[in-house]
Design goal:
Layout: H1 2-28, H2 33-41, H3 48-56, H4 64-96, H5 106-119, H6 121-127, H7 137-166, H8 170-202
Helix pairs in contact: 1-4, 1-6, 4-5, 4-8, 5-7, 6-7, 7-8
């Protein structure tokens, strides 16, 4: 699993860092088109020269080349954390759905997700297309939409692997992986609702 996924994870991290660095550089360029548009919309109370001087004091970001050793160290950690995260939440989801058997413990979920990650390396490699600097937002959006069926297909493979290793119906394996996402969204919505209630009570 690590031999297959770490190189893809490393390339994804490099592409993501390059994109983030490019955005940061453009953000600090007070004479670029981004700030040209923003300065035209700022109120008169804001001093453009003071803003430019403040931006000039920000440190430049590390180059992609200098970040490569750190990204190489981060890549296996990213794969291992993804594996353990998927296995833990898939196992919990399968337990909630009553899909666990007495003889099949957490190790079965670890093996199932490890095998799914091995097969899913093809989907992860295809996902690198979304990190490329495509010319224009229409092309980027088209690539992102084209990758959605790929992500769904490899998500289903994960559910099938979970069902096979635990000896439960396929629908329970697939539902266990979807249940994670449903619970995560529910927790985020509850947190936002709690924050909104606190704000209303404090106002």
């Amino acid at each position: 699993m690590l031999a297959l996924r770490v190189p893809v994870s490393f390339l994804g991290l490099v592409a993501s860092y390059a994109g983030l660095r490019n955005f940061y550089v453009r953000l600090l360029d007070s004479g670029g088109p981004l700030w040209t548009r923003l300065l035209a919309t700022l109120p008169d109370a804001v001093d453009p020269q003071a803003l430019r001087e403040a931006l000039a004091r920000f440190p430049p970001p590390p180059t992609v080349g200098s970040a490569l050793p750190w990204l190489a160290l981060l890549a296996p950690l990213a794969v291992l954390s993804l594996w353990l995260h998927d296995a833990a939440f898939d196992h919990a989801g399968l337990w909630l759905l009553g899909g666990l058997r007495a003889r099949q413990g957490f190790r079965a979920s670890l093996v199932a997700d490890a095998e799914a990650l091995q097969v899913g390396v093809l989907g992860a490699a295809a996902g690198l297309l979304g990190d490329l600097p495509w010319p224009g937002p229409q092309v980027s959006t088209g690539v992102a939409l084209a990758l959605i069926p790929v992500a769904i297909y490899f998500w289903l493979i994960r559910g099938h692997a979970l069902a096979a290793w635990h000896g439960c119906p396929v629908w329970k394996g697939v539902a266990a992986t979807i249940l994670n996402m449903v619970l995560a969204v529910a927790m985020v919505l509850l947190l936002l609702a709690a924050c909104a209630v606190m704000v209303l009570l404090l106002v």
